[in-house]
Specification:
27 helices; 60% helix; Rossmann fold; 3 domains; alpha/beta
Amino acid sequence: MASSRRFGTFEGVFTPTILTILGAIMYLRLGWVVGNAGFGGALVIILLAKLVTVTTGLAIASMASNVKIGAGGSYAIISRSLGLEIGGAVGIPLYLSQALGGSMYIIGFTEAWMALFPHHPPLQIAGGVLLFLLPIALISAKVAMKFQFIIMALISASLVSFFQGKSDGSAEIALWGGFESAPFWTVFAIFFPAVTGIEAGAAMSGDLKDPKRSLSTGILGAIGVSFVVYVTLAFWMDHAISPELLRSNYMVMMDVSKWRPVVAGAVLGATLSSALGSLVGGPRTLMALGQHHVLPFGKILGQQSANGEPRVATLITGIIIAVGVFFGNLNTIAPLLTMFFLITYGTINLVVFIENRIGISSYRPTFKVPAIVPFIGFVWCTIAMFLINPLFAGSAIVVIIGVYLWLVREGLQAPWGDVRSGIFTAIAEWAVRMGARVPAGPKSWKPNLVVPVEQPEAWKERMDFIRDIIFPRGSVRIFSVKILEQGVRHRISYMVSQIIGKKKDDEEPNNDSVKLEEDLAALIQPFRKEGLLAVSTLIEANHFLHGISVVTQSLKGMPLPPNVMFLTMSDDPEKDDRLEQLISMAMQEELGLIVLNLFEDRGFGRRKDINMWLRSGSPNRNLSILTAIQLEKNWNGQLRLLRMIEDDTQIVKAKVGLEAVARRGRLPLDCESQVLAGSFPKDLKDCPSADINIFGISNEIDVKAMHTITMEAGTTCLFIRDSGQESALA
């Protein structure tokens, strides 16, 4: 839209906001509110309602001075901060409330018209109003805005007429009414839509010359002026008109005013103007929802005419308004609008409070508000919802959560960034600080693995197995080491080749490192899809062992440190010495150890049967049991607890000991306990078959013996050593 077609503060924000606030509720229900609540009660209701809009208005002003909001008003503010999913979950009911607001204003117009012409059919009146307003909204928002200046003049004249009208009251001010027609919170719910006009101004955010300045000045100015008007009107009504008349006559402002036709014109004009505001503002929210593909048929809903008008969205809004007019009335629609507006305003305040408190550098508003302001707004919106109608409040929240989960499944992609990562980072930082104050204990243990990877392309099956060890709450950090000498040689070779002209200028140096990083990232991608914490890193070091030592020591000092090192055995005998050094390194760093020896002929078999071997007084039984339980759960497998002894006479005693371990370790009820006579490890081949056998690592590290055990067992084997921090009995 060309700049010349955009609106300034007065025309684009203040006017639609003030006219919507000084609309149907003021003329048709404020007297009823005062008649039930008295001036004191009405003042409390006005203040409580204004508390919502003041805090929300300040929040909108702050956000508008920080980012370019764009089309969609409140929806745009929420989605740009908390993401399209939350923005859409709140934006959809916000749009419906804007559309139903149009229904409410047309119903208000019909009530006022029926007071003047009681014999006219109400549905025909409402339908005629909608058919009159719809073309104006379709042609141009500019035309609609010009029409509102006439209404503002009528409203001003009507207020003068009312204050000069006749009085039939006792000139006594009631500090608190009897609430004869409805309880306090019902009266509040019916009145609250009177102050929601700030949405009419916010919805025009995409059509303003200077949104940062206009939204703050226009909304806050309208809130201040309307507050003075409402308090003055409530005082005069209580002073000049009897409570009985206020409660029984919705048209009391017209009947007691000095110039009845002027007030009648203002009532009709104000309701007409507010309905037009809904027909102009609501479609812009729907258009933004469509353009961001939050709703089905988003391409159609997001269409704009040559002059920037959302005509398809306007037609759909007109249909929704017509349905609301046909099925609703003022007293039923008003509380419904109250609930959805409270949810929207509460979320806006929450957004600003979060961005204020998490301390991200992108939050630098030129219009600053203390964090306590949006916090009060959020808390009060939440409390008010449940005070008005707990059942409906709960239902509305459930609906929003349902829409949110649906949008998450849709996998929406926003064309902007949001602050969700900053929120989660702040929460994580707080959790780390709190966790650091509490000493770690075995009850809080879960498998957090650190895994050195030499050749990522050979690790796919092993990564599937690691997933079965850590799922669903564990984590894995994999890393590989790029030998520094190779990297230096590559860079020198690249520089020389550039000088002699044998390489293209756009060729990237050290492509091996890039590929290695990509391979590592591909290994952990399935983990992330399942919601597991998985991280990959590539480092450069003088040699492989040095790199592993650096990474291990670094990770131990970080938040959420690993507690188990996962290693693999190789068929290459030359690598046995390096494996022994890695095991020693893990023991020195007080890490638990899981060493996998993959039996190439069988792999992991059916991933079903698990043999866990425990000798008497095994120092490695805790991590062995915890690992076996993880595999049993994730394989939906069968766990068997085994011990081999050479003395036949000790079998019964040994079996009692195994059963005690199974009982104290809370192993599955179908876990078998068997004690076998024989010599370990040569008689392993005669033992019950399994897809994997689990053994402890002795104090004297002997990798050759681990190879022998694997060959005798004839299956893939795990060799495990406790760190001393685990407990299967916790």
